[in-house]
Each structure stands twice: as structure tokens, then as C-alpha cells.
Amino acid sequence: MEELSSINGEGFGTSTASLDAAGAVTLDYIDGGITAVSGVRASGVYAGFRKNPDKNDLALITFPEGTVAAGVYTRNIFCAAPVTVSRAHTAHGHARAILINSGNANAATGTEGLAVAEQSASLVACALDISPEEVLVASTGVIGVPLSLECIRAALPCSVAALGPDDGTDRAGGNAAARAIMTTDTKAKEVAATVSLSQENGTSVTVTVAGMCKGSGMIMPDMATMIGVLTTDALLTPAAADAALRAAIDVSFNKVTVDSDTSTNDTVFLAATGVSGGDVIDVMHASFPVFAHALAQVCEKLARMIAADGEGASKLITVEVTGASSASDADLVARAIANSPLVKTAIAGHDANWGRIAMAAGKSGAQFAQEHVAIDIMGLPVLRQGLPVVFSEEEAIKRFEESEIVLHIDLGAGNAATRIWTCDFTHDYISINADYRT
Amino acid sequence: MEELSSINGEGFGTSTASLDAAGAVTLDYIDGGITAVSGVRASGVYAGFRKNPDKNDLALITFPEGTVAAGVYTRNIFCAAPVTVSRAHTAHGHARAILINSGNANAATGTEGLAVAEQSASLVACALDISPEEVLVASTGVIGVPLSLECIRAALPCSVAALGPDDGTDRAGGNAAARAIMTTDTKAKEVAATVSLSQENGTSVTVTVAGMCKGSGMIMPDMATMIGVLTTDALLTPAAADAALRAAIDVSFNKVTVDSDTSTNDTVFLAATGVSGGDVIDVMHASFPVFAHALAQVCEKLARMIAADGEGASKLITVEVTGASSASDADLVARAIANSPLVKTAIAGHDANWGRIAMAAGKSGAQFAQEHVAIDIMGLPVLRQGLPVVFSEEEAIKRFEESEIVLHIDLGAGNAATRIWTCDFTHDYISINADYRT
């Protein structure tokens, strides 16, 4: 994922504290995914990228004329062809369609791969009678293998025919798309919610914010990791869409770490159809922070689903850091803990191992003093002023029964805070990643 | 481990290329460990820190008057009491004894722990009729539990009585010490070698360089990781001992990563008895680079033993990076690959997975262009100019039978290079670290 583009100086929502302070944004979660948003149509079909025809592998999503779009992409130097194409297309600020395939990442495929990504956008443009620049593409799956344009050409008519209605009622189309982009995910990941935005004339407009994604646990041949699509019927400017998306990603998808690796294909799109009407929301509009916060909450839900569905994971782990001297120090400590194989295996073993948490924090490079540190595991104090606290092992084991394990460390060095999501390391993780043979 | 103290500007030996260029230093490896060095006596006894009396847990090493000493210590903010004490004592540049216990790290033990570490040095000083400042201490084992001074007091007469002869022939004493400091190590780690140093009068003196260490794989209750003792009969100044030790650690122990974690107790000592006689070797002496290189080679041997003996490891992995634009970029890439759970599990699964290596390099933050990258696995070209090369899967599987797996990546971005050692991630790693209960 790319760096946060700063919305208001220090960067909107780089700590949970500031996010919570923005406060008081209430979302009503509703059933559904990306097609809960008016103007959005979607389908998922089988195009032949995967060997198993029972698993669809091509998602098509369309939007009405005037839809504003933004994208955020992987920072990995090994970046896939569709990332290059979509990065250029989202620069225009608008889109009418998104095509995503699973089963092949179109990465490490050179100039031919780039041509295939461009041509697939052209095929979609032809089929929908729009311009190729209005088509965004993303791929996930095996890398280093040419992506077949013929599969896309053959499947597209079927994709278009399968698109559902665009009135926000099409539960099936959004779900089919969410399932078609899955790789090692065990569950489709969809969220939808409504939020009320105040208008300049004193009234309010209810908008829908929704999303789907596929997870970040990696396995050969499914190297490609996080792909997300956010949709909304809010009427945004391209700048507002871009700013809200980057801010939301910074506190959600960028705070998920399954195995500390980033991929060639990480991509998140936001499409805003504007069907809700009302004021045009730019970054200066009073309702912009409310929309941005709503988008961040939807992204957080999706991010937690990714962490909980990490390869072989049995637990979602939330690492909370408070008392850091800076936001970057908070992030360093949270990532050091979340990426520590020793912490992740301890949690798989239901071991309230404060020593491994302390050690990970200590090596992170963040500035703090050992004697000011406090650690809690599932609300149980285990370290105070840098020294171990006697706790009930029985109580700790009981709390480890929960499906979400919360680790909290206060560094006693300042006021910055953050929160990171990860999962435990189990025998299944090794099985999935080692026992697989290319 | 601490930062390298620069010996000659850019730092001696920060790349294997410069080390090799220093070249032409021939060591004769001999049987034995730290007591292969004249003037060094050692013992290993049972003091009661471990529950199992079949496993000794207290090592004592003594040196003659005038022995020069240096120490390098953990950079982890959570630093153990013996580290604080030894850091102060090595500042004097001399030592007469080293006391190391396993089974208890004396870490996260507050001011009481510090007093115990200081008092244990005093007990050794009394027993040997030397000054407490001439005693270095190190501990490894469970953290957050008080270290019993009584165990040390009771065992010390036995430790002193068990010391072997000091003429370089005592194989048993050095081995007993090497075994007494083991925690999760499956093998004692000892190296000894001789090297010839030219004198200013045109003659030469043969000196012995030796070492022992315990490994860095971590497991609760044995949180503490790397402890090493290097000995030599070379006649060094304190500044030369310190500079040679830091340079050697930079290309050896600092290039080992088992699970990316550093501990509260990491400590490496160098003791130079000076018994060899001949010229006093300062950093300006023509033979200093030869001695420093010899010490680095001994440390490299020990470092490779640590990586190969990582918890649950089935393979030693050597990650070689060439063509980096700077030494720090080379290090970033090598560590990203060596710490990637996806790379480590792939190797456990005998999977020639160039994609995971490329992805780890791409996320490292180092500067290079995808289309200039080449990757070899066990000498087999798998990626050229950023694109996959067809290779024989059968041949790859055959090469994976070796106990050491060499991954080589050339970034095509410059001339800097480095080498890092790690081990694979197996089911046993998860078992050791997750199934253990505190």
C-alpha cells in the first residue's frame, strides 16, 4: 500500500486516538456488499484461470456515468502489470467498470503482461461501450505465468449477462463477485453500511458505503494478496475520494499483517456513483470527515476479516500500542509485536507470554524506557513498570478461549497510539506454506 | 548486538566482498574450543538453575593477569542485569574471569537483579582473589524470575576446583563450559584455529583464536539468546580487542537471524591472554587486519552453527545479496528474505519458490529495478531480468537435499554485497514455540 496522502497536516487518523476523537459517526450496518450501493452492478463467473470450474474466477463490476474513482496500490518494487494499468487509469479520477480475475496474478510477466492488462481493459470497454481508460483491472494468483486474454474474451459476454440490477437490491451479484476474487480465503469478505451526511441547506442525505476484499495470507501459487473494492453512492469529487480512501487504508488494510510480506498485486479501489445526490462533497465540505470516518470503519471491518482469515489462523490478534512518543514509534512497536513469530506461536499455544511481547517491543527501534512499560493480555495485567506481575494462569487460559486476542502495551513515553491486526501462527500455517509443492 | 564501531571509515567488512578482498588469511582449524588458547581455564558444573541435574548450568572461565577483554551487548531496550554489569566492567579493558549461568536470564528483575549480578561478580572475585571489576557475567534462561545468589555461592568452590590446566591442552574444561551455557541448543558450539601473525622484526608468531557460543533460537523459559565467548593468546591492546570484536560480530553473529527477534541478554566477550608474546598488536599494527579477519572467520563458523541449530530447523539457509546500491540496501534485502516466514516455509517444503524471494526483496525498502534482478536457488537460475527462467523441478528437488540451502539475489543496482544466515521454519518450530506452556 502507498503512503498516506495527508489530508490535514499530520495525516488523518494515524492513531486510533485521533480516529476516536473524530468520533460520533454512527454507521448502520446492513446485509450485503458492494451492490448494496445504488448504481453498482456486479457478477462473478468462471473464465478458466483456475483448474476447478466449481470456483468462479472473474468478477465484473460496473458503475453509472460520472462515477468517481480512486485507487491505492502496492509499494512492492515487483509490481504486477494490472497495477501499472490501473494506476494510470485512476489518475483520471473516474471509472465505469472494474475487472478482477483470480488464479493468475499477471505479475513478473514483462511487457507482454502489460499488453494483456491493457487489452483486457479494452475488451471490457468494447463490451460496455465505454472508454478503456474508464476500466480498472486487478489480478491475483500465480505469478510468472502469462495471463490468457482469450479466457477473458470468451467469458466477458457471460460476465455482462450475469450483472444484476443497479438499484442497490442485488445481493447475489455482489456476493458472486466477492467469491470470484477469493484465493486462499476461506470466507467471502463483504460489508455494507449506511451513514447520514449533513447538507449545507440543513437537511441530510443517507449514503451507503460498502466493500468487498480478498485476504492477504499468501501461498504459492496464489502469491497475490490484498484486493479490495469499496463502493458508495455518495457524491464525491475525485480529490475527496482519493483522500478518503488513502486515510481509510492507513488505519485499516495498512494495519493488517499476516506474515509481514506485501505482494506484487495489492490494490484497493473506491468507486463513488454519486447516485445519492445532495451536495458535492469535497475535502472542504463539513460532511467530508464523516464520510471519511465511515469509509475507514467499513475498511476496518474488512481488515479484521482478513486478519482473522490469515492462512492457518485460529485467532484474530489485535495489538494495541499506547503511550508512544510518536505515531511512527507506535507503529514500529505494534508491527514488531504483530510480526514476531515467537508472539504468534505463543498465542497459538495459549501462552500469556509477556516476555516475547516485551522483547519484540524492545528490539523495534522505538524510544522508551523499560521501567515505564505496562503490558496487558486480554485485559489481564502481566507487566507493570517493566516488571512482571503475578497473574492467574487459570484466568489467562480462560481468556485465551476467545476468538480475538487483544494485546496491549503502554510505553509510558508519550501520547501516540495505534492498533494492528494479525493472526496466530499454527501448524496449519506451516502446512499450507511448506507442504505445498510448486 | 550493538552498532559496528568504525575501524576504517566505512566500517571494516560490512560486505562479504570487502572481507574477501582483505583476503589471503589462512586459518588452521584445530580440535577444541576456548581452552585451546594458552592461559585459559574453564569448567562447567551444576548449580541448580535448571531442574534437571544431568544438565550443567554454570560455566566459569579464568584468564591470567593482564588479559585484555572486550564485550558487545544487546541493543534491546529490555536489557538484563548482567548486561549492565558486564558493560561497565569491560569498559576497563581487562578481565580475569567470566561467569555464565543458564536456566535463568536475570532479566526483568529490577534493582534486585542488578544487585545479584554485581554480587555474583564479587563472589567470583573472592574465590579467585581478583577484583570484582575483573569479572564479567552473563545469564540465559527464564526471564522475570529472581536469580539465586545462593546457588552461585554454593557451586563456586566446585567450579573453581573443576578448572582444567591453562596450557592450551585442556579439551574437557572448554567443552564442559560450552555445554553448561546451552539452552535449546541441540549441540555444543566450539571452534578453534591457529593463524600466523607477522612481527615487526620480520619473524612471525602463531596465535590461537577460539570460541564457544549458545544459539539464538528462543523459547520460553529460555528467552535469552546469543551468548558467545572468544579467546585468543594474541597480545592485543584493549582498543584492538574492541575493534576486532565489533568488526567480527558485524559480519557473523549480526548476520544470523533465526526468528528476527533479539533478546534481553545477547552478549559476546573477547578475552586476549597475550600469552603468545611477540609484538603488542594495536589497530595500527600491520598484523591487526590479519587477526581481525581470523577472529571474523571463527565467529562466522560459530554463527553458521547457530543458524543451523535454530529451533526446529532442518536446513541452514545462506542468503547472499550482490549488486546492491549500498551496504545498507544489501542488508535490508538479505534480512527481508531471511526473515520472511513464506521463504522459510517454502524451503522447509523443498520448494524453489523464487516468487517469495522476489517479493521479500521488493518490500524491503531497498532501491533497485525489477527488470535488473537475477535470482539463483542452489546455483540454479530461476529469475533473470525480473522474469522467471524455466528450470528443472527434478534438479531443484535434488539440490534441496543438501543441508545448506544457498539463495542468491543480484539486484543489478550497484556493487554492495552481504551474506545472512538463517534456518527454515518447520512444524517443529511451531511445536517448540507454541506447544510449550508457561
Provide a short characterization of the protein structure.
The structure is a homodimer. Chain A has helices at about 15-20, 80-90, 110-130, 150-160, 170-180, 240-250, 290-310, 325-340, 340-350, 355-365, 395-400, 425-435, and strands at about 30, 40-45, 60, 70-75, 95-105, 135-140, 190-200, 205-215, 225-230, 265-270, 315-325, 375, 380-385, 385-390, 405-410, 415-425.
Tally of helical segments of chain A: 12
SS content category of chain A: alpha+beta
Portion of residues in helices of chain A? Answer: 25-40%
Order of helices and strands of chain A: HEEEEHEHEHHEEEHEHEHHHEEEHEEH
Strand order of the largest sheet of chain A: 1-7-8-9-10-4
Give the low-confidence spans of chain A: 1-22, 219-224
Largest sheet of chain A: 6 strands, mixed
Distance between the termini of chain A: 27 Å
Oligomer: homodimer
Number of strands of chain A: 16
What proportion of the residues of chain A form beta strands (DSSP E)?
15-25%
Mean pLDDT of chain A: 88
Global Rg of chain A: 22 Å
Q: Of all protein chain pairs, which has the greatest interface, and how many residues does each chain bring to it?
A: A-B, 60 and 63 residues
- Shape field of chain A: globular
